[in-house]
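Journal club prep — side note

Before the paper discussion, L.F. wants everyone to see what a predicted structure for a comparable chain looks like in token form. Sequence:
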Amino acid sequence: MSVYSPRQFKVLCIEDEPEILRDIADELADHGFMVDQAPSAEAALPQIDAGTPDLIICDMQMPGMNGLQLLQKLRARGDAMANVPFVFLTAFGDRETAIHGRKAGADDYLVKPVDFDLLIAAVESHLRNAAQREAATRTAATLETEALVPGYDQLIDYLATQSVGMALAVIKMDTQPELARRFDGKNRKHFNALMLRLARANGLHAFRLKPHVWVATMADAARLHTALEPMIRMDLRDRVSPGNGLARITHSVVFAQTGCDETHSALIDRMMESARLLQREGGARMLELEGPELSELRLAGAIRSELVGAIDQGELHVHFQPKVDAETGLPRSGEVLVRWQSPLLGHLSPAMFIPVVERAGLLPHVTDWVLQQTALAQVALVADGLPARLAVNIGASEFNADLPDRITRIFQEYGADESLLEVEVTETSVLTDPAAAEAIVQALHARGITVALDDFGTGYSSLSHLQNCTIDTIKIDRSFVTRVAEAGPEQTIVLGIIGIARMLGMETVAEGVELESQRAWLALNACDTLQGYMISRPVRFEDYRAWLADWSKAA
């Protein structure tokens, strides 16, 4: 869209998930837009009144005033804000939600995790008419300044004259929104000049691809690495913007070398996308395009993009692993474990995809889905007259004051009994803020839900904190169970955990029981419950129900 300059337009982003808000703001700023950010609709209203944005991107579901309510409020105003383009962010683009939003006056929808190419296309589309009107405001001085900076075409021409193996580095500023807020976009020519001086001082050829993205080239890859090291973190003072003081600027840098099997434009495109991924993971690093760290980041990006449709396509499923009484071997409960079989990515373990889910802001949807599957399974077990107590894992970010009501709502919807539910949480969830954790535990207890502390002994165990939080069960981590039948420190640790639990009136569950010697030692030393491959691997629900039925017949 050469008829306008994005920096003439202000986009207000409203999102309660900090990482999603940061990613969207960074992407917009990277394309030259001025960006304001707000963590809630309530926080956005004063910003709207202070300076009308040209476009609003807003999360549909937020605590307090949600996106739909904000849109209705703005559309009812009699000022310029009544007609400002409004784009919704939603985790799932269901038809009913879209209809409600359209009726309220929404201009567009973007589904999380956001496809950033679609994001930019949507913003540009809705600002097109205004952009054409504003294009004439670009001054001759600005045009002259930008003409002096070599860009993409000059880079491609330059590489065409160089030998195979030329070292390249894409340098992407991580902190462009802060720079834009501090310097208001008025002194970009000073920043351009600074970057060019730094490049010349180090013997580099530098090309600007976007307002905050540069490419540096040099024949010697090792020298290029060394030359760019100081650019990862830079302190920019008055020479950038007089009177604004010090600004800390960080960059994400991706290295590669030209080859025979790929065009220069395709290589640069891959490097740009990798720099974007690197920035979203915190930035301020230098990585090789074909290195293992960037491969992991690409996998995380693929997981994020595939996850939205995983539930609807039936790719997510749950397995059940029995827990039995250590002394009698009788079933006590089962743990519900989420699994993902992706047609594109193959089998993904929770350890691989749950952190990505959490960073993408989609963990609440996965948690609710697991609770729904748990409720359905419990109803089926009760109908069959089989033991129906089940346990679910709750992530640290989900262990909050809303959790008890969410469980109640879901279990009531499916006709399940929440008093047959056990919630498993990690030590950090409970011990980081014991007072808040205790209030949540008490609310769960009021509904008959028990709480287990998972992976005990591997985090920040504190006896004083544990004493002040009325947990029902301690799960002994498998790392201590592996050698528990052998005389050594593991035995001492497990005996200590069992002793602490008994002193505080709690039960114990040993995870990872795989050998008869482990089972016998744990039963002899008063561990209450066992879980592990010796009893059963995690299995699909039909197999779990059959396992319980076989036990029932044998009993």
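L.F.'s comment for the group: Confidence is low (pLDDT under 50) at residues 139-145, 183-187, 237-244. Keep this in mind when we get to the figures.
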